[in-house]
Amino acid sequence: MPIPTPFTDAYDKAFLLDTMMGPNAMRIAEEMASFLPLRQGLRVLDLGCGMGISSILLAQKFGVQVFAADLWIAPTDNSRRFQALGLEEQIVPLAVDATKGLPFAHGYFDVLFSVDAYQYFGTNQTMLPGLLEFVKPGGHVAVAVPGLSRELPGGEVPPELRPFWVPQLDDEFRTLAWWRALWEQADGLRLGPCREMDCLRQAWADWLESPNPHARQDVPMMQAEGGKYFSLVQLCGQRV
Ligand SMILES: C[S@@+](CC[C@H](N)C(=O)[O-])C[C@H]1O[C@@H](n2cnc3c(N)ncnc32)[C@H](O)[C@@H]1O
User: Fold this and answer.
1) How far apart, in whole angstroms, are the C-alpha atoms of residue 98 and residue 157?
2) 79 Cβ contact partners less than 8 Å away, ≥ 6 residues apart
3) What's the angle, vertex CA 66, arms to CA 64 and CA 72, rounded to 5?
4) Cβ-contact 175, 151 below 8 angstroms
5) Does 206 have pLDDT greater than 90?
6) pLDDT of 130-179, one tens digit each?
7) Where are the domains of the chain?
8) At a CB cut-off of 8 Å and minimum separation 6, what does 45 contact?
9) Residue in 21, 115, 200 to alter for ligand 1 test, most ligand atoms within 8 A of Cβ
10) How many angstroms does the Cα of residue 49 sit away from the middle of ligand 1?
């Protein structure tokens, strides 16, 4: 039974189409948030927030305080967006490179949240233990990444995907089993609901409607993929 995402379905679609940077991050955030005990007053780090639509969902739907941290999108851009929505007191935009360490106190966050970004910096054994330092004991980590629904046949990129495959996808696109095995090795984490997300197809369909040139390029890729290979992997855990 698919997990409903009513907040996203009712949201200003033109705004979302302008601010998506990949499969609809608000929809993904809403489904993943349904696995977390979010409530007003909690402090959430949204790592790799892009243009901030997952941060907006967290702030508006759950009333949490969000630190919206990103590498490519300037905090000034995000600040304008959050101000226009009256969210400037609730969402703090900032520039962060997760590979260079985080500018926060240890144990500062109730939740570390990330949508469609962790694959760029987290496919190694050191990132998760490092990030857990910034989460309170008992706090949660929730990450959603695009990935593979199964290992590629023979370990080879299928012919229909080759025109779209760039070498870094070898590292970034992993299966749920691969990610789970990586997270099982992390000291200080109790693994929670790790699963393929229900919103996989709809989140991609939303993105392919976007005027963003990257979305236009992704249309033939998704036609070639044909629902056979891609997944949306959710990884959750709690700091012990
Ligand atoms: C595909 S975009 C997705 C953005 C947003 N989460 C969304 O889904 O709309 C990937 C994001 O990951 C962020 N990112 C990549 N490497 C990062 C790093 N080392 N530290 C922080 N953010 C990073 C980029 O800045 C970019 O905004």
Assistant:
1) 29
2) 88, 93
3) 155
4) yes
5) yes
6) 999 999 999 999 999 999 999 998 999 999 999 999 999 999 999 999 99
7) 6-239
8) 66, 67, 69, 102, 104, 108, 109, 111, 112, 113, 134
9) 21
10) 6
Q: What CATH number labels 6-239?
A: 3.40.50.150
Q: Where are the beta strands (DSSP E) in the chain?
A: 43-47, 65-70, 91-95, 109-115, 135-148, 189-191, 195-196, 230-239
The pLDDT of residue 2: 83
Rounded distance, CA 231 to CA 240, Å? 28
Average pLDDT over all residues of the chain? 97
Cα–Cα distance between 53 and 210 in angstroms, integer?
14
Q: Which of 49, 70, 121, 172 to mutate to test the pocket of ligand 1 (most atoms within 8 A of CB)?
A: 70
